[in-house]
Structures are given as C-alpha cells and as structure tokens.
Design goal:
- In chain B, 77% of the residues lie in helices and 0% in strands.
- By secondary structure, chain B is mainly alpha-helical.
- In chain B, helix 3 crosses helix 6 and helix 7 packs across helix 13.
- The C terminus of chain B is likely disordered.
- In chain C, 45% of the residues lie in helices and 14% in strands.
- In chain C, helix 6 packs across helix 7 and helix 7 runs parallel beside helix 15.
- Classes of the chains: A mainly alpha, B mainly alpha, C alpha+beta.
C-alpha cells in the first residue's frame, strides 16, 4: 500500500518537477526579449557613457573626472538638484494623490475621470521652453496672474517676496508635469482599493483615520513609494525647463552636464559623462532605499 | 444612504483645474496677440499654412502609436512574469527601467549612431526605414520608466497569482492567460502608460533631431528659435490636438464588449468553478 | 570708408600679395567649377547642420543653392550649438547615412581645435584671398564666413528711455529688464556679451582683466536688480520678461523684422565695448558628400552668397573687398546700423577669446550667480 502510494506520490512529484521546469523555461522566454532589448538599446549606450566617465579626451583611463566631481561648484549643483527633485517629488506625490483619489473614489460625475486622465497625459509632458514660457506669461513680473492681482486686487505679489525665478518658482513649475505623472500612475492602484475594506473596517468600529492608517496606506505604500521614486528621478533628469526658466542663475547638475556634453565653449564631454554617471549613482542609491522601504511595507502581503 | 455633494473632491479638482488651466490661458492670450492691438488668429493661420506642421505631426502620431504597441508587447509580459516567477529579479528590472530618466537622451543617441551606423553589424542608420525603426526603439526606451511603473502598479492592484491559477485550472494556455485574462485587467494601467508614451513621443526632440527624422519635436524647436507668437500658438495647438488624440485612445482602449471594467468578475467565476 | 574698414582693407591688401602666389597654385590644384558642379550633382545631396533659417538669412541661402544647382539639402538640428556640430562630426565617423553633416558653421575658437583633431577637410574657395588672414587657417581647414557685433535690442513698449551704452544699463529705469540670450557658462554669444561689458569698463586690459571687469559689471547689475537670469529670446522680449536683450546685431535685427512692430523694438550698438564675433566654415573630414560640400562653399563665398548673408544683417567676411569693388547695393547698406557704430568694433584674437572664456565660465557662478534659494 505504502509503496503504491509512494510511487504515486513520487510520480506526482516528478510530474510537477517536470512541469515546473518547463514552466520556468517558458518564463525565461517571457523575460528574455526585455533583457535583449535593454542590452541592445539601453545598456549599450550606458556602458559607453560609463567608460567615457573614466577616460580623458585622448581615451586613456583616468579617475580625474571623478575627482573633478568634488569641486564646490559641482557639489553645490548636485545639492540643489537633489533639493529641487525632492521638493517637487514630495509635493507632486501629495497633490497627485489627492487628485487621483478625488477622481477615483470621489463620487464625481463620470466624465471627470477620463477628462482628468487624458489631460494628465498631455500635461505630464508639457515641459521645457513652452512650459517655462507659459509660467513666465502667468506668474512672471508681467504675467497674467501677477497683473490681475496688482490691478484687480491691489496686491503686488512680488513685493511679498515671491519670485518665479527662484527655487520655489522652479518647484511650482516642475509640479506641472509631476502632478499629472502621479495621477496617471497611482489611479490604477487606487482602483484596486476595494470598497468592501472600508465597509468592513467601519463595521469593526474603525474611524476614518484608523482605516487609512491601518488598512489603506499600508496597502498603497509600495505603490506610493514607487511613484515617489519615479517622480524624483523624473525631476532629477529634467533640464530643459530649468534651463529655460532660471537660465544662468540656478546651478543644477543637468545644466552643467549639458554645458559640458554639448557645450558651446569649454567642452569636456568626459566630465559631462562623469556628471551623468554621478546622477546614475544617486538614482541607484535612491532605488536601494526604495527597495528596502518597500520590502518592509510588503511584509504583511506575504 | 443619502448621496451628499462630495465637497472635498470637488474643491480638489477645481483648484487643480485652476493651476493647470491658467498657464494655458496665458499662452493662449499671448498667441492671440500677434497683430498689434487686436485679438486675431494670425499666429494660428501662419502655423496651419505650414505644410511641415501637418507632415511632422502625422509622422510623430504614427511613431507614437508604434511605440505604444511595441512598449506594451514588451512590458506587460515582462512585468507579469517578473511578478509571478522571478520576484527577486524585480529590483534589477526596476533599476533598468529607471535608467532612461537619468541618462541624457543625447548620450543615448550618440551611442546609437556609433553602435548602429552604416558600417556596423546592425546598420539601422543606413536607410530611412531603418532609422525610423531605431527611432521607435529609442522612444520605447524613453517611455520605459513610465510604462513599466504604470503596468507594475496596475498589476499590484490585482491578484495575478490567483487569476493565473484559476485560469490554469480551467485549462487555459499561457498566451490565453496573458492576453485573455491579465491584459484586460490591467487595461487601465496600460492605457495610462500609453498616454504618457504618446505625450513623450509627440514632444521628443533630441532623438528625432540627431537621427534626422521629420518629427514634430524638431519642428517645434525650429519654430521657437526666432519667432515670438507662433511658438505660443504651436504650444496651444499641440496641447489641444494631443489631448484629442488621447481622448480617442481612451475611447478605443476602454471598449470592452460584454465585460465589466472590474477584474472581480473572473475572480468570482473562478471561485465558483472550483467549489 | 570708415577707419575700421580702412584698417581691414590695408591688411588684406598687404597680405593678398603674398597669398596671391599661393592662391594661384591653389587654384591650379582645385577642380574647375564645371567639374565640381558635375561631381556634386552626382552626389545629389548636401547635409548641413545648425543653420536656422532666420540666422543670417540662411533660409534664402539654402533655397538659392537648391535652385541654382538642383541638389537637395538635408538640414540637421537647426538648434545645434558649435559644440554639437563638432560632436556630430565625431559621432558620425564611418557613417555615410543622412545623420552625418558635410559642412559646419561654428564659432571662431572651434576651428583650430577641430582642425587639430583631424575633423576638417581643407579646401580653399576661389575667392580665398579676399578673406582676411586672421580669420582663416593657412592650410584651408577653416575660414571665416561672417561677423556681427553685440547689440541691445529694446522693447519700446516697456522701456521708454533707450540705453545707449553699457553704463546706462545700471540705471534704475531698467529694473528687471536686462537679459542675455544664452547661459554664460556655455553659450558663446553670452560669454562674448560679458566680455563686451568688460571691454567698456577696461578697454585696454589683458583678456583676463577684461573678463573680470565684465563679471564685475554683471555682478553689480544683478545687485541693482536690473539683471534677469532668464535665457532671453524673441518671445520673452515681446512678452515683457526680458525687455532689453543683449545678442548679436544680426539676430537682433532679424528679430525686429519678425515682430513687425508688435512690439516696436530698437536695435542699438553700444557706444563703447563693441565686440565683433566671427564664425567660421569647415568641411567635415568624413563628409559623405565632399563635392557637394565644396560646391556649397563656392556658393557661400560667391558675390551672390555673400550678399545673401548681408541681407540677413550679417557682415560677410568679404565685405571690405566687395564694397571697395562697389558690389554692395546701397539699399542693403541702409538697412544696417550706421557704419560708424562698427568703427570701434574689436575682434578678440583666438588667445584672448580662450583666456576670457576660461575666466568667465569658471567664475560666473561664484561672482554673479546667486545660489537661488
């Protein structure tokens, strides 16, 4: 009896093993195109960049470019870049979350969601010179809103210390493409928040705050963190808008990088590559932090 | 329960609308001022009369659609399999998808020209069609972060493990599971990724200009170089037309004949079958 | 003839004698014009880069070339900077596809470095000897094409009192008004503007001193609240963010024409600190269509080509020789700012330019650029 059972069991085992093996090989086929694509069209050029960071204009290997990164000007540029990116990612995530929640679970008329979502699609890429110009025409010294406040309400916002051409002005401008990005990416996740959870929580006596703190946010945390990371990287790499708006007064890394790689003048593309390499390192570190946080957040989902 | 007016959401949406619409109004206002002292559509007339506007716009729309299809075909299976079978590979995949955000596109395109020029093994740049293909592949790379994040977030919201097992227990093949079960459930996510991709491709400049393809981005930059009013008109037109195209994408994309939008229908069906 | 033109003419005359012999030999070495046209037509196409149609009337230049010889012109990246053009040549080595530029038009300082890196194919046009010596390489690798001086373009709707000189800009009338048309850490145009401001303050200083004086000027301008750190353009000028824009006179005049009086702008060459900037042409050493490139050069340096540039308000490099020969129509001359404004123009030498650039790009952030908080 036992032997038959054993035989049957081992046959089952063998069957599942074979099945698993074929399934795994099939699965490899599933991810292979992605890696092939990434290798050919993303990693290839990146490797070229990484090598360039460690070469000098004659092609010899050197660490000089990396050392050159630690000059005060470039360090200040990295610092400002990180600060602007953090600020715009934080506020973008916050406001984007509220808007996404409003259109998904806010009981608004049915036409609101598709309109907001498609508008977000367009707005998320409205950047660079057109965006900078639009904000100059709105909040600049002779902008529409500025003039409205001055003539209709008698308030001169510039005399209160507001200046579009500043850190806060740049952050406000960046939000124009950060918020829509957040809305677009977090809305599908909010779709997955089942109404039953809210009902179950209230049946068990939880208040709104407790529901959010103990049920909704833990579920959403990995997605929220992932979106925050994306927003950070998105802002970190944005150059056209900052350049067009604050031009020569704000010193952020992508501007320096562009000045070197495509410079009209003092043109040291290897330093530009080193700058880009530094950006990759920073994004890599942020990614690691995100992974660690996400691992903690996902613990309960196992 | 009495349905009360959702004050909170309404306030949020109205404030957001103000923030997003005002800069557009300012641009529109400037674009209408081309003729001194009068409102006129002169700037728009100049733009529409330009044959290059129509040809470059069409080129970019077609490129965008190709990019979306290719991107979705590449990413949805990858995200699915990584989530299902290779969860430990996920950090690597995520890092790869974040790379395009920090690698300047100018470095990408110089890499392409060097690796795939007319004297290499894969001579993409040797012909116009080959360069178009290379351009679309470059666009897929640029849209990778957004497409992947959208699809991945969408997949996190549905329980793909149970869905897969349910479908398998009903005897479905691999491709049926992917295209018949998973894809419809992440449709909203793929669509939002598609919107982002569309907008990116329409405005993209560096790749198109250095690979010398007649796309919309270089045309925008050319107009903006020395004109004052036409670029503002172009910005408004580009915004409006892209919005309309996305509206059409939304309509065609969310048409699911005979099936409800939520993914729970299959869930319940599977549970019932297994009882 | 103006002092400036007299000096340049004298130089040209003195040197043309010595170069005449070389030119003879060169002309004997060049193909005949007919052969060149035939060879170019066989290639069928010319690839250019960084030639916006509104810059020096390149639009008309390209159309004229196409009509005269029936070649197609493939225009790459009109917004490229000089650095981009050099990079495009390097990146397309071995690529004969349509992304590889045949000819480039770059700032003066890029000519020698590109030649040193072996990126240029030497060629001497038939009118070679009418190009001043300090604006060309002796072996024909690069050669000056046009020049202009830095000028103020003023939006008359916003600014009533038009400034006449650099020192006027410090006036409190011009609060939040003055802008450069580029980033002084990377744009040639902006760097020369800083240099010009320094030249007004220290006309006889060494390049580094002039550069420092320029930086100091902009530091004071920023402190006075007159400087707007936005990268200025025709759009920002018209919209009102940058009502006083400092850029090349040919750009300013073309911009004035585009705006068609809405708003009215005035182009002023400053009384002191007049800096002239020369651009140079070159043929790529890896050009896929070398004969078309050479034909293009012949066209640019022909009378027809030079006058087309003049129509775009750029002073063509053969200006002196041509005006001496009476080849310049009076109505064209009338459209330009008065010749007296150009008398004081200084052409910084290559070494001066390099020294000044190093100074300005290195110190801009610390001296002028406030860390924006």
């Amino acid at each position: 009896m036992a032997s038959v059972g054993d035989a049957a069991a081992s046959e089952d085992q063998r069957a599942t093993l074979a099945d698993g093996a074929s399934r795994r090989s099939f699965a490899w086929l599933g991810v292979a195109p992605f890696f092939a694509f990434a290798l050919l069209f993303l990693i290839g050029p990146t490797v070229y960049l990484v090598f360039g960071a460690f070469q000098d204009p004659t092609g010899a290997l050197t660490l000089q470019n990396i050392f050159d990164l630690f000059t005060p000007q470039i360090m200040a540029a990295y610092q400002i870049s990180i600060e602007v990116s953090l600020a715009s990612a934080l506020f973008g995530a916050l406001f984007g979350f509220f808007i996404a929640y409003a259109i998904v679970h806010g009981n608004l008329p049915t036409w609101v969601r598709p309109t907001v979502v498609t508008f977000s699609g367009v707005a998320s890429n409205f950047a660079g010179i057109p965006l900078a110009f639009a904000f100059l025409a709105t909040l600049g010294r002779l902008g529409l809103v500025t003039l409205f406040f001055r003539h209709a309400l008698g308030i001169n916002i510039y005399s209160y210390g507001f200046n579009l051409l500043s850190f806060s002005g740049l952050t406000i401008t960046y939000l124009y493409f950060q918020i829509p990005l957040m809305v677009l990416i977090i809305a599908p996740a909010l779709d997955g928040m089942k109404r039953e959870w809210r009902e179950a929580a209230s049946v068990l006596g939880a208040s709104r705050g407790q529901y959010w703190r103990m049920v909704a946010l833990p579920v959403l945390a990995p997605s929220l963190l992932g979106c925050f990371l994306l927003l950070f990287a998105n802002s970190f790499g944005a150059v056209a808008t900052a350049y067009a708006l604050t031009g020569s007064s704000l010193n952020i890394v992508p501007i320096l990088l562009y000045a070197q790689i495509r410079g009209d003048v003092l043109y040291n593309p290897n330093l530009g590559y080193a700058l880009a390499f530094g950006m990759i390192v920073i994004t890599g570190c942020t990614n690691l932090l995100y992974l660690w946080l996400r691992a903690r957040a996902e613990r309960w989902q196992r | 329960m009495k349905k009360s007016l959702p004050i909170g959401p309404i306030v949020v949406v109205v404030l957001a609308a103000l923030y997003f619409v005002l800069p557009l109004i300012a641009t529109l206002n400037f674009s209408l001022s081309m003729l001194r002292g009068v409102w006129s559509f002169e700037a728009y007339r100049v733009v529409f009369h330009d044959e290059r506007f129509r040809s470059t716009f069409t080129f970019s729309v077609v490129a965008a659609l190709c990019t979306i299809v290719l991107g979705a075909l590449l990413i949805v299976p990858t995200a699915y399999w990584v989530r299902l079978k290779f969860p430990r590979m996920r950090p690597l995949v995520e890092f790869i998808t974040l790379l395009p955000l920090v690698i300047p596109p100018i470095v990408l395109v110089f890499g392409y020209i060097r690796l795939y020029n007319s004297s290499s093994i894969l001579p993409f740049t040797g012909s116009a069609m080959g360069t178009n293909v290379l351009l679309v592949l470059g666009y897929v790379v640029l849209s990778l972060p957004y497409m992947f994040r959208a699809v991945d977030t969408g997949m996190a919201a549905i329980d793909i493990r149970t869905l897969t097992e349910a479908a398998e227990s009903l005897g479905a093949k691999r491709t049926t599971i992917l295209f018949g079960v998973i894809l419809p459930n992440v449709k909203a996510a793929v669509l939002s990724g598609a919107f982002l991709t569309f907008a990116i491709v329409m405005g993209e400049f560096v790749l198109a200009s250095l690979l010398n393809r007649p796309a919309f981005g270089p045309y925008l930059a050319l107009m903006g170089a020395n004109r004052a009013y036409e670029p503002a008109a172009l910005a408004v037109i580009a915004f409006a037309v892209t919005w309309v195209c996305m509206g059409m994408l939304q309509v065609f994309g969310s048409q699911t004949p005979g099936r409800r939008r939520s993914g729970r229908s299959l869930f319940r069906f599977a549970r019932r079958a297994n009882r | 003839m103006t002092q400036f033109h007299k000096r340049a003419a004298a130089l040209a005359a003195a040197l043309s004698l010595s170069t005449a012999i070389v030119a003879q030999a060169q002309a004997a070495g060049n193909q005949s014009m007919d052969d060149l046209v035939a060879a170019a037509k066989k290639e069928g196409q010319l690839t250019t880069i960084a030639l916006p149609h509104d810059w020096c009337n390149y639009g008309e230049m390209i159309d004229g070339f196409k009509k005269k010889y029936g070649l197609t012109v493939n225009e790459l990246n009109p917004n490229a900077g000089s650095g981009d053009e050099i990079q495009a040549i390097k990146a397309n080595k071995g690529n004969t596809g349509p992304q590889a530029p045949d000819v480039i038009d770059v700032g003066l300082s890029f000519g020698p470095t590109a030649a040193k890196d072996g990126l240029l194919m030497p060629y001497k046009v038939s009118t070679w000897d009418e190009i001043p010596d300090d604006a060309k390489a002796s072996d024909g690798a690069w050669y000056g094409d046009y020049y202009g001086v830095l000028a103020f373009q003023v939006n008359k709707d916003i600014v009533d009192n038009v400034p006449k000189d650099w020192s006027d800009l410090m006036n409190s009338d011009y609060a939040n008004a003055v802008a450069l048309a580029g980033d002084p850490r990377s744009s040639n145009q902006a760097i020369q503007a800083v240099y010009a401001a320094g030249l007004a303050a220290k006309p006889d200083g060494k390049p580094e001193e002039v550069a420092d004086a320029g930086l100091d000027f902009f530091k004071k301008l920023n402190k006075a609240g007159n400087f707007v750190p936005v990268v200025g353009s025709t759009a920002t000028l018209a919209q009102g963010t940058t009502p006083i824009l400092i850029h090349w006179d040919y750009n300013a005049l073309a911009s004035r024409d585009t705006l068609k009086g809405n708003p009215k702008t005035e182009v002023v060459v400053p009384n002191s600190g007049v800096v002239a900037g020369v651009y140079v042409q070159g043929i790529s050493a890896y050009a896929p269509h070398p004969n078309a490139a050479k034909l293009w050069m012949e066209y640019l340096y022909s009378d027809e080509g030079q006058l087309t540039w003049l129509k775009g308000y750029c002073h063509p490099i053969r200006f002196n020789a041509m005006s001496k020969a009476g080849k310049i129509p009076q109505d064209l001359l009338d459209k330009l700012p008065p010749a007296s404004a150009y008398e004081k123009a200084k052409f910084p030498s290559l070494d001066a330019q390099n020294a000044a650039k190093a100074e300005i790009t290195g110190k801009w952030d610390s001296v002028v650029g406030a860390t924006v908080k």
